[in-house]
Specification:
By secondary structure, this protein is an all-alpha fold. It has one domain. About 60% of the residues lie in helices and about 0% in strands. It contains 11 helices and no strands. The longest helix has 20 residues, at about 130-150.
Length: about 150
Amino acid sequence: MDYNNYDFVLKAVKQNGLSLEYASNELKNNYDIVLEAVKNVGWALQYASNKLKNNYDIVLEAVKNVGWALQYASNKLKNNYDIVLTAVNNNRWALEYTFDELRNNYEIVLEAVKNDGFSLEYASNELKNNYDIVLEAVKMLVGLYNMHLLN
């Protein structure tokens, strides 16, 4: 197996994005290879080069696929409003991987708790005390509980 061969690795990451782990360092730094990997499996971002972990388009695709891939993004992108908003819309754990500034952002936290009320755990103390935020978290959790009872 030739993990330094562009065509071979591209085919591999299209089938399973986590194949990126075995690619050569050169191909872990190749935009097209990494983009295909994170489109397939978002958390393949962990195997990308640091340069591509700081690439807006790559990280956006990763968090669209799985929100908690945010943990592998560069610090700069972990604090990017649009990236974090996309991530929290996808997965409640994403809020855990951003910084205090966005954990205290009303819109980000509201979207996170609408997606999963348990994400309130990662909100700032100020927003944990915000009536509207807590209400949305509770509504989401009550809805989830009611769905469970119906099944």
